[in-house]
Amino acid sequence: xxxxxxxxxxxxxxxxxxxxxxxxxxxxxxxxxxxxxxxxxxxxxxxxxxxxxxxxxxxxxxxxxxxxxxxxxxxxxxxxxxxxxxxxxxxxxxxxxxxxxxxxxxxxxxxxxxxxxxxxxxxxxxxxxxxxxxxxxxxxxxxx
Amino acid sequence: xxxxxxxxxxxxxxxxxxxxxxxxxxxxxxxxxxxxxxxxxxxxxxxxxxxxxxxxxxxxxxxxxxxxxxxxxxxxxxxxxxxxxxxxxxxxxxxxxxxxxxxxxxxxxxxxxxxxxxxxxxxxxxxxxxxxxxxxxxxxxxxxxxxxxxxxxxxxxxxxxxxxxxxxxxxxxxxxxxxxxxxxxxxxxxxxxxxxxxxxxxxxxxxxxxxxxxxxxxxxxxxxxxxxxxxxxxxxxxxxxxxxxxx
Lengths: 144, 247
What we know:
The structure holds two protein chains of two kinds. By secondary structure, chain A is mostly helical. Helix content of chain A is 56%, strand content 2%. In chain A, helix 2 crosses helix 3. Chain A starts with 14 loop residues before the first strand and ends with a helix. By secondary structure, chain B is mostly helical. Strand 1 of chain A pairs antiparallel with strand 1 of chain B, so a sheet runs across the interface.
C-alpha cells in the first residue's frame, strides 16, 4: 500500500501506520460487509409471521438458528432418561452451563504458554471437536 | 524542518488568545477546525492526540482474519442506529406490538429497509462475533496478558445472544411467542431454583404482557447499557496491551 504511494518513509519497523493504510483496509472490509447486509435486506426481506395466538400451538416450534445447537442438545439429553426421570432436563441444562463456564475460564485452564497451533495440539483438537459438535447439533436441529 | 516544527511555526503566526475576536473563535468551532487548529486544540491538544493515535503502527502480521472484531463493532453500530429508529414506531403491548411492526414495514417511509437492516445485521453480528472468537482461539491470542480480555469477550458473546433472545419476542408473532415459551422453559430444568428462574424471566406463569414489557426493557435499556460497559473494557484492554504478536 505505502509503496504504491511512494511513501516508504511512512513505513516504520513496527508496521504500517494506522492512518491511512490500515484504515483503508478496514473501510474496504466494512463496505464488503455493508454490501452483504444490503443484498440480504433487498432479496430476503425480514419475515412477517402471523400474529401470536396463545391458543394455537404451531406444529414445529424451533428457535433462531444460533440457538438450534442448544435446543438440539436438550433433545439429545432426553436419551439419558434411563438414569431417572430427573436426568434428561437437568443434564441438558447443566452440561451447557458447564460448557459456557469452561469457555469463560479457558485462559486460566489452558496453562500452555505456546501460541502456535502446531505446538498446542490438544487445545486445537478440542476446539475443532467443539466446532464440529456445534455444527452437527445445529444441522441436526434444523433437519429434525 | 519536521512536521512538529512546521506546526509550531504555523501556530506562532496565528494571533494569541488575547488578540482574537470572539467571532473568529466561534467560526472555528462551527467550521470544526477549532477542534484541530483553533481554540479547543489550544486548550486540549486534540491535534497531538489525534496524530499520535492515527499514526500508531499496525504490526505487519495483521491479516484479513483480524477484521471480525471491527466488523462486529460496525454491525453493533448499525443495530444501535436502526434500533433507535424502530423505537420511534414500536409499541410494546400485546395488543399493538404486531400492528406497529406491520405499520413500520408497510407504511413508514423506508421502514421496511430499517427493519430489514436490523433483522439481518443481528444475524450477521452473531456470525462475526463467533468468527472473531474462533480467530482469537486458533491464534492463541487469549493467553496472558490478554486472558481477562477473553473473559470480557465471552461475556460480550453472551450479551449478544441475549439481545437475540429478547429481541425475537418483540414483534409478538406466532413463532416468536412460541419460541420464547419453549426457550424460557429451559432454565426451569436447573435444580432447586429452576421454577423460580422461569417465573422471573416470564414475570408470571406464562409468556404474557409482563414478559413482553420485561423483554422490551432488557432489549432496549438494560442490555445496551451493560454491553457498552463491557465494550469499553474490551477496547480499553486491547488498546493498552496491543494486538497479539506474530505466531
